[in-house]
Design brief:
Blueprint: H1 4-12, E1 18-20, H2 30-37, E2 44-46, H3 49-53, H4 61-80
Parallel strand pairs: 1-2
Amino acid sequence: THPEQFEEVRRIAPEHFLLVPGIGAQGGDLQAVSRYGFNDRCGLLVNSSRGIIFAGDGADFADKARAAAMEVRDEMAKLIG
């Protein structure tokens, strides 16, 4: 993920949701992406699948996956305000 590129994409497509892959396990920075990608008209669709589906294994999978998903959700909520 190259967050600085979202600024140009957002300029070109101000009224479209932008899909944001690579947040979490792939090293994408949600704070940086939101700085360049958010606007007053439309938001971002954030994908963090690997960080969630591989959060745990065995008996703890559901609890670990839930915790990872909630962590991303909480970070997004702070950024949205």
